[in-house]
Design a protein that fits this description.
The complex is a heterodimer of chains A (206) and B (315). By secondary structure, chain A is mainly α. Chain A has seven helices and one strand; from the N terminus they run H-H-H-E-H-H-H-H. About 2% of the residues of chain A have low confidence. The chains are: A mainly alpha (206), B mainly beta (315).
Chain lengths: 206, 315
Amino acid sequence: MNDSIPQLPEYDPHPDLWARIEADLQADELLSRRLPDLPSYEPKASLWHAIEQNLNTPEPTRVRPLRTQRTSRPLWAGLAAAAVVVLIGSWLLLRPEATDDVRIEYAVEQTDALPGQEPLAPASESLADKRAEEFIARQCAEQQLACQRPEVHELRNQLASLTAEQQRIEREQQIFGNDPVLVQAQVRIENQRAEVTKELITLLRS
Amino acid sequence: MKQLLVTAHRVGMALVRRLGLAVFLLFPAMPGIAQVSMQVVTKVVEKDLPYTDGQRIRLVAQKADVVVKGWNRPTVSIRLRLVARHPDRAVAEREVAYHQYVLQAENGRIELSNQFIIPQRAGKLQSQLKAIYEISLPNKALLILKNSFGDIRLTDLAGDVSVNFEFGKLTLEDIGGKLTVVSNYGDIDGRNLDGTLTLKAEKADVSLRELGGTAVLQSRYGKLTVFPATTSHALTIEAARTEILIATKRISDFKFDVISTFADIRVPDWLADQLSKYNGKQVFTYQPAGRKPEITIQNSYSTVVIQGEKTLVDR
């Protein structure tokens, strides 16, 4: 437990935080101080009487027939309404097709390799990566002071975010397979991770 | 004589057979060299939408190559190509349908987007899917663009453009007005930018040629190369761990105020006395006579190089 505390990320509070808390506290105090100063108002003496009188007058009830008598509409009105519904409906249904001009094109390309034929890049953590991680964790446990230096701290944060990014790309690869753009992204992250790891190990060794 | 000919023929045939066998044996050893026919099935969608001044255009793209060009017609013209590639045409044809798109005007905004909807039962995708946008829009338009894993190219725009992307490359050419760029792992190549540029890059290689106007560049990790133009008003760089190169045609066209912590500032020899170093910190201040655009740089842990006209001779 004690070993893991230095590994936790550090966060600095927003510089205005104390000022904000203080302002909140002061506002409460100010409110309670100013409360007695507020003017008080008495209602008019006749108010209750007036309300009572209103309550006693019965609401007039109105009887409405359950169903209004059917007025006879000519047949053509119904037909016209149906036609309008059909017209609007078909317009709404066909509209996107009418404005988007869509077509399918076919072509054949010659490429050097089949997609997916290339072996998938090694899983996120190779053995060397694991060793590097262990080294960093051990070094940080042994020399807590060195590990608290801001530059080490920053690099460890970087490493964590790079690892998260790497996992995200692996998830994308689960869906899209060995797409070239995803492999490029993966290579980029790997290189960056390698750089940060190397720098971090150099810092922790010195 | 005839016998000799026959012998020669036999030897020749044996040679061909043996060579043929060798060629045959060699082939499976290098499968990468083999050419493969890829069936490319493309759904092409074309649409024109009328544009009114001040209208916002939002493009949310995924795995897309995007080309946007400004023109002086009050129309947004879109050609969207949804591509599926696979050696088997039937597979490509089936999977091209996984592309979904929206191209429409909605609540006074123009919404453009694409995404991939892969049905559960279909399992893993077999084709290579990608979307390609070719868009022409009024050059003063308001554009918000988001993309990942694809290349973006913007040209001839002078309105208000905001780009947020990751991975892939952003190419900018002849851009004025207001431009905001946020990049994660995405490289940027700009030329002839003359407006108000705000750039925030993480782990990106950024190169800006003929950079004029007002520019604020923030960068963490990566590289930043700037060729400032004399039309520049001010250039501010707030960086950390970024390799910075400022290449000027003539160094005395600009004022400099450069601070670097835990890394060197390199300047031409004749300006070495303007460089001071103390306690892991280096400061370069240079103020030529007259009113000159100011270049302010802050960086840490990575070198800042200032080049002028004499650098080539100095080397």
